Amino acid sequence: LLHRDIFPVMKNAEVFQDCISLLTEHVEHLTTPVDAIVGLDARGFIFGPLMAQRLNIPFIPVRKAGKLPGETIKYSYQLEYGSDTFEIQKSAVHCRQRVVIVDDLLATGGTMKAAAMLLKSLGAEVVECMVVIELTSLKGRDKVPAPLYSMIQYH
Ligand code: PRP
Ligand code: MG
């Protein structure tokens, strides 16, 4: 699998700011008001908190398993090589909270699907899943059980 890397975006402050602005403006233009931004460990943490700050709404982390205290729920998913498990605190979201999930990249879609399933199982409404880059040929968006927005698409 070709490696699409998002780190060059952050080497240029203006490019990084524009990227956060585009993502934030997209959320502002959604017809459903959004209560919180959910970011996915690890690279979703680069974009999610900055968006939440601009939007003046909470940031909620979904972490790789074994990192969060308190009562949690887990969801395991397949990766290109092997598998991984996501975990979220039960107290992190409340029922019917309207959230947008953010990650850097959509490849096979397994990661985003796992995150959306976790949030839905806690009763949250997943208004949209957002990624900076979508690798369209892998058809990951077909797996995601919510509307998917990507800023940049590569075949
Ligand atoms: C990468 C990337 C996405 C995921 C996309 O994360 O940051 O989260 O893969 O792949 P998928 O659509 O096929 O599931 P990775 O698990 O490599 O870890 P990291 O974010 O912790 O660096
Ligand atoms: Mg990731």
Task: Tell me what you see in this structure.
- By secondary structure, the protein is an alpha/beta fold.
- It is built from four helices and seven strands.
- The chain has a seven-stranded mixed beta sheet with strand order 3-4-2-1-5-6-7, sandwiched between helices.
- β5, α4 and β6 form a beta-alpha-beta unit.
- The chain is globular and about 40 Å long.
Which band does the percent of strand residues land in? 25-35%
Number of domains: 1
- The dominant shape is globular
Q: Which class of secondary structure composition applies to the elements? A: alpha/beta
Helix content: 25-40%
Instruction: Please provide the ordered H/E string of secondary-structure elements.
Output: HHEHEEEEHEE
Write a brief structural summary.
The chain is an alpha/beta fold and 155 residues long. The protein contains four helices and seven strands; from the N terminus they run ααβαββββαββ.
Topology:
Layout: H1 7-11, H2 13-28, E1 36-40, H3 48-55, E2 59-64, E3 72-78, E4 83-89, E5 98-106, H4 110-121, E6 125-135, E7 148-154
Parallel strand pairs: 1-2, 1-5, 5-6, 6-7
Antiparallel strand pairs: 2-4, 3-4
Helix pairs in contact: 2-3
Bound molecules: 1-O-pyrophosphono-5-O-phosphono-alpha-D-ribofuranose (PRP) and magnesium ion.
